[in-house]
Predict the structure.
Amino acid sequence: MKAMVKAALTNFQKFFGLPPTGKMDGATEKAMQLPRCAEKDMSPDELHTRRRRYAHWGERWSKRHLSYRIHKYSQKSLLSRAAVDEEMALAFAAWASVTDLVFRQVSEKADINISFFRGEHGDGTPFDGKGNMLGHANRPPGGMLLYGPRRHHPPDLCLNSSFDAIFENPDGIIYVLQGRYYWKLSPDGFVNSYPLLISHHWAELPGDMDAAFATSSGTTYFFKGTKYWVYTYTRLHPGYPKLISEGWPGIPSDIDAATWYTSSVFYFFKEDVYWIYDSRQPSSVNGSRPMTEWGNIAGDLDDVMYIRSGYMYFFSKGHYYRFNCKTKLVDSVWPDQQHYPRAVAPWWFRCSSKETKA
């Protein structure tokens, strides 16, 4: 078994141009998180018999001037037909710039036919959902380009610094979640090899979380809709997910943000109100309170994070406030520093001004 795993890893590394060590390392793990191409996986038998990375088909175009036609447009595209035509024209222009071929779009019979499909489309290679097979083509002279549903690529937090959740683990590592992905943060910004899929670290956890926090004991809570999940590092506690109404009576569903404060006190936020949950009290929650109690911090939050140094950070739409839990005020800064709210991208993600304007 170990020999088979090593052989599979070695072939994978060769395919991606990585050192063929046969061992799992950071670069190999990152390559495994990349979106798939349309090439099918090799079977165990092919690992020993399949060697070539390409094949010369023997066919080529018999003429230099080629026509193309978009035979079937996508029915659910966010682009208009005119925009699709323009993108295809740019693609063929790029092809023509490095060959002696000339392309023109036609509305009738063409040398190259382009279609957009979902799922099975009659050639035995179905488009199997978002994030999987993107498209494929037939060789000349029967040119046909087929495209499936669009892929999901990791969001760029330097361009859009809003996110779903943020929390600090007891070891001081900060995690940021957005969509199906998560990042680790260091004092210098994003840790290399990230983002990764949330399911890579928390196997049972869906994407698009509402909020998350980690306690000093290493227990992490994730909230989404009516449910919440509890993990100790990567291990899901038995019986989860559970309903928020069962585990946190008095706390509503679909919260905007949540944070741990002490071993028994937790804060939950939704729109323009918040709740203090104190597990030591007979009635853990005594109704909601207005966000105006936090000064000029408005509602509609991305998430809130308590740092053990005594600060609570409020994140909203790419900006953040630092709240001093001792003075009960938004923290003051030196006269020559930028006041709050500050932009998340440069202060937390260490994005350059060039990256935020890309």
About this structure: The longest strand covers residues 65-72. The chain has two domains: 65-147, 165-356. The chain has eight helices and 24 strands. The CA atoms of residues 141 and 166 lie 53 Å apart.
